[in-house]
Amino acid sequence: MNPKTNKFFTRSIMLNIVLTVLITLSSVLIHAQQPVKYTLNDVIELAQKQSPDALIAKHRFISSYWTYRNFKADYLPNLTLDARMPNINRTIAAVPAQDGSINYIPQSQSSYFVGMSLEQEVGFTGGSISLNTGLSRMDNFYTDTTTSQYLANMVNITINQPIFNYNPYKWDKKIKPLEYDAAKRKVVEENEKVASTAVNYFFSLLISQLERGIAVKNQANYDTLYKIAQGRYELGKIAENDLLQLELSLLKAVSAVESSELNYENSFFLFSSYLRLKDDAEIELIPPTITYTTEILLDKALVEAKNNSSEILEFKTRLLEAESRVNWAKTKGGFNADLYAVLGLSQTSNVISSAYNNPLDEEMVVLGMTIPILDWGKTKGEIKLAESNQNLEVTSVEQAIIDFNQNVFINVMEYNMQKSQLLIAAKSDTVAQKRFDITQKRYMIGKINDVLELRMAQQDNDYAKVGYYRALMTYWKSYYDIRQLTLYDFQRNMPITVNVDDLID
Fold first, then answer.
1. Which residues contact 499 (CB under 8 A, 6 or more apart)?
2. Is the CATH code 1.10.1790.10 the one for domain 38-64+173-320+387-504?
């Protein structure tokens, strides 16, 4: 190959490389400039995953989860190992003599202890039982020869049982599971609330995008109409007042573009902040095209709300707590007794192997009693106060249940009404758009010269289009509000639940 041919091929290769790089960079830039598209479901899923409200609800549930786990652990056997190795004591102690005098005697001792205990709370009685074993050693150094002594507690059974006392374990076993179940339902309700909030941010940004587009379109339309009107005015076909009206409309359209741009930026910031989006890429929202408009039966919604709502469990918890306080007041000032008993086998010896031979039994039983004699009516007053608070709580819960049912009723009625409202909004949008198109065309060809009629047609068209999306927003917010109240998915006909493992992980 001659030098000229070689040079030609080299230039061709370099040109192809440059073109390839330019095409690649152009493709990357075009792709980078493409807006990120989100549907309503995308936004809801993203909000339920990483929005501040969703994360707060998750961590609150985690706290409730471990609180309940700790409560359950209190009713499981508790095995502990206790050791003191060594405990050295070198001091001068005051020792009384038989004649009543005090002698100060130097002491030098060390002790060792290792033990193990198994303790179990007895919830239905409010007491506890424990099984203990241990070995102690005492060394005395302040003699000519070191002496050692062993104490072996082979087995020790301790029973501590209050009698007629207030039993907190009994009430906790009723209340704590309700609180945990309410926490599980609460996190689901918070997720549905997050969905409702996400709907609000979605449509707020969508409407601001729509209003910005309408403002830009109106500015372009009025700019064209104003130029046409200037020509007609020069030909004497329209009055100066009509020309001024169009000029004023054009100025308002320019101002509306600036206002809509500011409103869009604010909506974009709130949308991105709530979803915790990391970049500032342009966002394109896709309006929902399929709307679930099946009627929700009131009786069905009420049944599911009573079965699934956390508020119902909270009502039950409040009544149990009030009953518990009455029980505490009645037992606090009445006759009380405590039984404490210890049964065991132990032995001492100077040799560790002999400390476990021929054990001696030991028993201790203590029965303590508290009998009120005179308290000047304090116990009776505390009981009456607790009973009064209980009656107040019962009345408050009954009213709260009525309000809860009324809230479900109102939300169901509002949701079922949205179907007709959507149809009206959609029809209004279609009619207003058609009217504006016809009015604009007639004005441009000179069939009508009424500027006010054109402006009214344009305003009605703008309001109808925005009104349709506001109706959509109201519909979806209403739907997720009902889901939050009932914890029921009416599309799939099943309760909305939560996987605890997914939240804890």
1. none
2. no
